[in-house]
Structures
1.
Amino acid sequence: MEKEPRRLSGGRSRCPDCGLPQDRVATLDHDWVLLEPDMKPLAHTVPADHRWIELSDGRVMVYGVCPPEQFQRCRVEHRLACPAQPCRICGHG
């Protein structure tokens, strides 16, 4: 048995709904989340339960601290930015 946890390698795949790339990243809870690549908005612009913060070992965790640090960046799940998902305001796709 390993004394230290191994880094979990993620990868990039294509969304089956829109065809755009998404990053598969390990979470602190040893699960996976599909994140929007190359998108790191300021954390205060993203609702607390949707802020994914990258840890030094490459994993991510939800960052629910309110208010977040002024210049803290975060990542968001691809499903929130996916153009194939229905609009949350009007309900149209």
2.
Amino acid sequence: MAKLSTDELLEAFKDLTLIELSEFVKKFEETFDVTAAAPVAVAAAGPAANGAAAPVEEEKDEFNVVLDAAGDKKIQVIKAVRELVSGLGLKEAKDLVEAAPKPILEGVDKAAADAAKAKLEEAGAKVSLS
């Protein structure tokens, strides 16, 4: 078997779907008995442990979009929620809207969070990012 370069591997990964890539990562972790999770807590605790300057707060790169209230236009908000959250049926979206405050999207980037917030607010909902 020919040895693939890093660039060739990256090109091969670009052709995979997210599900296929997720399955690959699981098999890789099982085969080599490793984890792909980044050691975030260890890296963040490093400067504070050795008495250096106070750690600088990092800018958030993942946001949760929380529906605080549906507002007066509940039907439009339900439609917007169904557009944002794939796989929700009408009943599930209605239950989610009526159970506010509830997270609609979790762990999304800033642009996606802002877009979702704008769409929900345009429909009449009160939304916050956390």
3.
Amino acid sequence: MPEHPAVPLDEVDRRIIAELVGDGRLSVTTVAERVHISRAHAYSRISRLTSTGVLTRFTALVDPAKAGLKSSAYVTLKVSQHAWRELKEALRAIPEVEHIALVGGDFDVILLVRAEDNAGLRRVIFDQLQSMPGVQDTQTFLIFEDLDNR
């Protein structure tokens, strides 16, 4: 994986980021007011943070249960040594896979999987994940309660 140089951030940048993480729908004017800078300054800072890749996208957080996704699990994968490049694209194509991370430790990949019910979760794990070329083993950890700190 190529190294991406860190972008130097000052306190104003960090405060802007904190405001947008708290609510990505804030207007530039509101961000400027909360950070105590001019609207033009806030606009240029947000533009720079976006163009340098510090801010990668603006999105909404969804309550999975209220959205009908009542079954969630973390699924770990052990994969063949050279399978990651092809595997990550196949994992991205599964709508129920919400998050993918390549990790070090007793397993290689951890996924956050959300489905409408246990049958849907089972289908993703048994029919899709376990049958993928390069996946050697899976382990599933059911989520009983989600707490989002954001």
4.
Amino acid sequence: MGVARDVHYVRMLRAGHFMARGIPVWHGLSTSFLLRHFAEDTGAAVAARALAPSDPLFRAPDPLGITA
């Protein structure tokens, strides 16, 4: 079984079950995160606007402090 290379936690305050109530935020973050790693792993070109939602995750000194 493999081990995750990278994991980030994002708090979504007052969202309840964020995968149901915050679908656009959840979808944007997860898609951006996956595209970023796809581009890094394969060298594929991915538009900067597609990576923008996950930029804060990679710039933050403490990813646990991110709030969407």
